Task: structure prediction
Amino acid sequence: MDTSKISQLINKQKEKPEHIHQPHFNLEAQVNSGRIKNTHNNYTMKKHNYSAGPCILPQDVFEKSAQAILNFNGMDLSLLEISHRDKAFVSVMEEARALALELLGLEGKGYQALFLHGGASLEFLMVPYNLMKENGKAAYLDTGTWASGAIKEAKHFGETLVIASSKPENYNHIPKNYTIPSDANYFHCTSNNTIFGTQMKSFPETNIPVVCDMSSDIFSRSLDFSKFDLIYAGAQKNMGPAGVTLVIVKEEILGKTSRYIPSMLDYQQHIDKESMYNTPPVFAVYTSLLTLQWLKKMGGIAAIEKINEAKANLLYAEIDRNPLFKGTAVKEDRSNMNATFVLNDKSHTEIFDQLWKAAGISGLTGHRSVGGYRASMYNALPLESVQVLVDVMKDLENKI
Amino acid sequence: MDTSKISQLINKQKEKPEHIHQPHFNLEAQVNSGRIKNTHNNYTMKKHNYSAGPCILPQDVFEKSAQAILNFNGMDLSLLEISHRDKAFVSVMEEARALALELLGLEGKGYQALFLHGGASLEFLMVPYNLMKENGKAAYLDTGTWASGAIKEAKHFGETLVIASSKPENYNHIPKNYTIPSDANYFHCTSNNTIFGTQMKSFPETNIPVVCDMSSDIFSRSLDFSKFDLIYAGAQKNMGPAGVTLVIVKEEILGKTSRYIPSMLDYQQHIDKESMYNTPPVFAVYTSLLTLQWLKKMGGIAAIEKINEAKANLLYAEIDRNPLFKGTAVKEDRSNMNATFVLNDKSHTEIFDQLWKAAGISGLTGHRSVGGYRASMYNALPLESVQVLVDVMKDLENKI
Result:
């Protein structure tokens, strides 16, 4: 196909009804009221944002967090300039901690929620510091790049058993039928693997504490979260902007090691200080609260799970139906958050890339470890955006 | 003085020309242009914000960061939803790192600037991890709560010598005439002590690496920054919102210890990854860049230093002149960032508190360790705000 034909196709694609609209914000009201009011409800998508993270958040959250920067809580001060000890922010932190537990169904079950600095990568270190005993050992499941990052840090603390790994198959599936040693101090797994598009659909039963990195699928599906003893998640997928990490910890698993734990890495110290051991990342915590409030209003995890399933089903059905495409993850382990796929014929790359970009889609390029494409369908991505992608895939088939 | 008299005074105070104005933001332009334009220059103070940190930032920075949340860089995407690997954010990180070095006069001198997670409290741990040799030792100057927090963490790594301390005098001065052992791995000090209102006016000469926590006075005064080997600063005073820490490190001091350093705590790994070892706190980095750009436009550190001196001179002159007040820090060590003072007669507390609150001042209450008042006069606090406080102090004297 020559270049002029590609251009024709792209122009044709552009003639379709516009999926992209400019946002219509009106912050003028603040001038009169002293605080900003939301005077409209006609939010529309700016782009179909498939970014793997940081990623799309609800449009309403963007507007509210921008408002808080101009004037927080009617205080005539920016959210960024108030003390974190101000009661207005203390109540943000308290509500965020309580709401995280509520949404996971963990209130009153001995868990604490913490909003910490450092990203999930710092948790790779905090987990063994807090849970691996001196001369102890831990069991890790190796399902991808981040799991293997966690393993790397744990190795410096004690015996770190990799009890199963899908690395030889470039992490295209979740290992099964492994045994968790009952004398390990904890079992660590990664529930969703953004890069490889795989997701754990079930979790093993074990008598030792279960630690799970849920960075890329927390709050996206119903699970019995009380089967986990420690859950951590960098905010920048389903919870908020980059710069804060949610840690959910069952308090009874702490204090079992005699190892020295530096203050900033000690979960118990953060619990004792109500997640304010040092100045928290105020903006990221507040924006996470806004996102959790949005989720609650949507109907919580059970409601968003249905939408996430609909989005994933729609896209995977097209990947499987369309002869031009192929999924890269083993079907039974496919992630509802990140769908990874490739073109069967690489010579279609240029035209496909131009088509999806012309449709207002962004962030679809796959990670270099897998190549091809990755459609990240986090909570805030509307079904409409998935339909747009599916339409583009059909268009490509029709025109080739 | 009875309550009705207090009310009269406060009403009289309120009759004064209004110091507080509503902000006049007009973000309407974005609806037409697809990105927000700053259509006005009449920023006025909302409050006279003396918060000790997080604290006031330039009003222009608040508006620009709010705009970026709605639509970043004309991309039709929020700053919060783009990948940190997107070239638009990579260039933010690069500019912020370069501008920090430029403002400090450290370009081309072997230094690296990093924007890290964790706050200065994580640096208390990273410094000994990276610099204290196995069986080595370090020398610390104890000038307040934060210095003592740094000492506490270092003690777990090796011999931690507290070579001088002003603790017995409740940290009301900076110790002098101490000796730094030439065989220590490094010397650590805290340039400004927010809680106690003291500031190091000079720094010792030594042949060992000098590490300085400049969280509360970085970018506020001219110093020969090349005399320091490692400078760190939580952003939330003169640089940006809470949630990011600037680290300036002379690369040649790294790699001298055989100690194992966890990846997230290893300065060299952060340098090798160009300050993107893991997902950075995108919003806090961008807002820090806006603040650094504002400082450069103001004329850099030399220009802001003059304004900071004028503010401090104005306030300290009133503290010393007004018979109702007394400064708590030794005069020669007074901080230009945080002025701590008390009422000589505590029975004036209620009326003074009502007067400054009525004048639109916020955040003046002193830290519980010192009591009384603390006026934090960071870079973004205008001289006008200090004049308002001085006027209130004079009013109190006139009416008592």
